[in-house]
Amino acid sequence: MKLEMQQNEFEGKLITFCGLDGCGKTTQIRRLVEWLESNGHMVYLTKQPSDFVRNSEIFRTYMDSPTHDAFDYRALSLLCASDRVQHSNRVISQKLKEGYIVISDRYYYSCLANLIARGFKDDMWIYEIAKSIRKPDVAFFLNVTVDEAIRRVRKRPEEKDRYIDLELQKKLHDLYVSIARENGGVVVSTLMSEDTCFNRILFEVERMLNNK
Known about the structure:
The protein is an alpha/beta fold. It contains nine helices and five strands; from the N terminus they run βαβαααβααβααβα. A five-stranded parallel β-sheet has the order 2-3-1-4-5, sandwiched between helices.
């Protein structure tokens, strides 16, 4: 599960966050953006896949269907991977050139985790495409138990009745940890307090900035 990715040779820095729905990404990203901007950094916040894919019929139909039988998942994954190449080369790279600190909510690691979790572990194309993706300067993987993640998701009024595949979430949980370890990611347990988690994230970000 180790990915060969392009090194970031630009002035800006790339920070990514991955993890289960309900892992706390939104909260920690918000706090990091506020801290960076208050310390004079230019910040560009983005997400993957982009809205182009998120709003597409194939994505919405697949994600909102309990049976997931309307579309082939490999086709959906290829669509998402293509979107990530476009986004990495045309959006993220440009902002890095301009000196921004780019923060991405989800990244290529999520594409890999979801593909393997759904039984496509022998698909080699995802490793080839990764060579066209920019490697993060810091890749955070926010870790939480599956039960706690689901509890948090169910607290959202708009998602209290959303279908959640429990077995899939368990696979994704383990895969995120494995991918982080094999690709130099930073695993942060969000079972700790919000402040403790943020301080752990901030430690890594400050170390990255001081190593310029």
